[in-house]
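Researcher: Batch entry, complex prediction.
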Amino acid sequence: MAEKSDFLGIKNLGIKNLGIKNKLILFILLSATIALATIGIWQFYYERSTLSDRYRDLTRTFADQVSTNLVAMIAFDDKNSAQDYIVEFAKEQRIVSYIAVTHRDSNGQWQPFAEYDVFTSVDDEAPSQSYLEEGQLQALVSGDVTQPIRAGYSFYSSRSIVFKGETLGHVYVEVSTGELKRTLMQSLQVKLLAFFGGILLTYFLANLFQRFITRPIVALAELTERVRESKDYSLRARVFGNDELGKLAESFNNMMHEIQAKDIERQKKEAEILELNQTLESRVAERTQELEQAKDDAEAANRLKSTFLATMSHEIRTPMNGVVGAVELLLLSDLDDSQKSSANAVRSSAFTLLRIIDDILDFSKIEAGKFQIESIETSLRDVIESAVAALAPIAKSKNIQFKCFIEPGIPDFLMADPTRLEQIVTNLVGNALKFTETNDIKVGEVCLMANLESFAGEEVGIGLQVSDNGIGMNDEVKKRIFSPFTQADQQITRSFGGTGLGLTIVKRLTDMMGGTIELFSEEGQGTTFNISLHFPQVERELEDTCDELLGNEAISIGWDQDIQIYIARYLTFHGVAVKNIGSLDSLALLKDSHLQDVRFILLDKAHNAELVEQAEKMLDERLARLDIKVRKVVIVPEMQPNAPPRLVQEQVYIGTPVLRSALVNGAAIALGVKSPEVLVEGLDIAEIVEDEQDGPTKGRILFAEDNETNQFVIGSLLKRLGYSVDVAEDGMEAYHFWQKNHYDVILTDCHMPRLSGYELTERIRNEENAERPIPIIAITANALRGEAEKCLGYGMNDFIAKPVETVKLKATLDKWCTDSQLKKSGLKPKHRQPTQNEQAEQAETYEQATPHPDVSQEDKIAIHPDTAIKVYFDNVEDLYYITVDKFIAESEEMLSALSTANDAGDAEQLGGLAHQLKNTAGMVGADYLSQLAGEVDGLCADGELGEAQFHANEIVTLIPLVVKKLNLVAEASTATAGED
Amino acid sequence: MKLSKSLILIVLMLVCRSSVADDAVEKYALMFNLMIKISQFITWPDGDNATPLKLCLLGGNPFGQQVLDDSPDNTETRLFNQIGDVDEGCHVLFIDQGKKSSLDYIVKQVSTKPMLTVSELDDFMEYGGMVSLNIVESKIKLNINIEAANKAHLKLDSSLLFIANRQD
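Model: Structure tokens for the complex:
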């Protein structure tokens, strides 16, 4: 378009940007100008041409007329008339400027006859100057006038004057162009006037009429703009007519109609989308709510499960205390063999049950992610030996050869979690023992090995291997063996029992310790688990126990190659040169010279006892012959592996599996560098107890316990174990006893009325002779998380978890009584680490609903105004009682708020209230309530809502009782005040 | 403007040539020539081309015999005394002053005949004569009565009118 319109140069003139109105006017004016100019010019030329023609004709006419009219005058030779006539004629015609007439004179020569010149003729006279000179006259006469006689005039004409065939003369007429020019000029002026007038008129008309075209266009343009701005698609253009503009407006309206329809449709769709969105949102919200509800339900269910498990655990454990205690007592009484067997079965079952509960609790906690791996100073050897000791009886009962080897090079102390390590070992070995049997075909064998895999810098890599030659498992089973509640198959479950959680827990624990576990198994051939773990090393001074054995020589006689190697490596590590004798032949080959240097002899009577005894006999003979007297260390299967070596008739007995500690101790005793701890024989509890009873009193024990059942059960046990016992009802009484009497050991419950075990310990530690602290052993069924540390933190020396096992009780007391006696000689007792079972119990009992089941109701609502006044009110009693009044006044509100929050399961609210209660209860001296509230607060913060709620329930029941008690306290105070 | 119904008097004022003498002979000779020239500007009816021109004199010969003798070849001159004698074939009839008294009658006799009536009397027009010709002080006085000529079916050459005295 622009290119097309540009041919007029419009683009260059900037017309393109003019408004359509101006453009229109301009174009019309341009057209009109061109048209008018063309017409004007054409008309002018036409007019000029016409006028010229007319003048030319006139000239000819004039010539004709003059020539005709002059005939008579020339004929009559009337010059005057002729002159008069042409002057008159010229004047009459006005445009005639020159006339010349000739005639023949009397001589027959052509002469001028009459002449008129508009410029020079005056009146009727001839012009002063004649133009008819010789040449022109001749031209005129000859009829050959080719140019005007007077130069500059366009129109001229000449005629011969002929009368009756005779040429009388000639006439020449010129017509002035001045008139023509004047006429043309006038015409031109009129035309110019008309031209400009026309243009002006055109302009006005164009301006007037352009509206008919521009108005609809401008209106349309404005409308378009308005539509664009307002988005109002209902606007319509006014249709002015049925021309193109009208059609354009119509088209625009049609288009608008369509747009409007589409807009409405779009709005409708938008609304639909919006509605859909809202619906979707509400649905999402609904679903979210449902999901949240479901999640809450699930969590509530989970909490319920936790609570249930905790409750069940507690509920099962509490009666188990009774069962175990009672069975232990029963075993101490006079029973015949069948009765004893039954009682042992009951005891065994009780502990199995407890272990199952432990497993379930551990698994629950691992699943819940609440499980924490500790990193404390740990003796791997102690941990493994402890586990072995616990498992040895099972192996023995199943007649399975149970071997254990802990590489002596493993550092004594590592940073590890002893409880969980022992759990891993126990579970794996227990599993191996469970699925291994000794029958006619083969001897069942379970081997536990701890190897030093790497020892680089600070980290120690330990490889634990547990292998058996049991039933093994196929590939399918291997895949899912680490999944919870999985056993090889239902048949196995029926055959071997168990929860199927053991390996799962092992796997999870290994993972949590950052270790790896590998499984090698073949069905019917056996199973091997390899666990690889890394622990930081602990820098410690080496104990110089190895010096005891250094430089001695020994002979080890045994038919089991493995055991022989283990023994050799243990003893070699301690500097003993060992000669292994694995057959009678090799014994025979032994030279006498060798026997000369031998300081003790090892006899493994746990394997091929007959052959070993035969060898022993041969050796005895040779020794007798050589008069060599050496002690023997005899390995007997009847003894517990960790039982102290016993010296009986110059023979030291140790149990199986052979443990390094027992072996080294036994060797030391055999060498006479260490005294035997146990000199007795008999390996079951009754025997031990009986033995102890027969002896003198081993020590005086103060036993603080508020629970009557426990007073009876444990008190009886202690007496049976050969101690004299004073039983205190609570801490306060125990404190008084301690003040009055001397005791070797104090055995105390932690939670008691009046004075708790902790407080008792604190008081004693504050008051006793620091040089000789009395061993205090905590005994509680309520070992909360970190209870062991707490006990030790309060200055206690050790602790025993309920239910109390006789062996454990005895071992602990033996240790501390001895220590107590050693202490007298200035030796410091070594604090022991909690063992696996104990810690498992701690962890498990934490889950129990009632945190302090052994705290009596009385103790729970006990108020300690004195402490509170001292601690919180700087001994200003009034302030305390004001606080008490306030607490009482606000108690109902607190109670209802707590109940509400508790029922609603609002952890935040409950936590806040508990925190508040912890402080206020503490200030009024309701210590237990405060403590309980503190726990709820902590649990809420940890997200343990289930447990928190459980404790909160107790708080709710306790508050009214505490308030009642506080009322009494307040009244007493008022009474006292009144007395004062 | 229309001339009077009966008579248009045309006075031709001619300046005589230098040869024109004051004396009567020359005057009449010139008049005779003029009369012949005038007749050249007249067209007679019925295809009569007036050759030879029959010039008739009534009542006398003021021109003299000489003039008549010297008349051009194609001219016949006749003399008549009475109007009744005048030949029908005369183209020009010059009426002498002697017949002044009977002019009215004479003109009436020939008024419908194709004869150009000429007289030297100034008031000839008033009698219905066609051409009055005279020379006064060397100037030709020529009056032409167009109506009378038309009545006699004579046609005058227009250019003749430009030398006659026109009264319009």
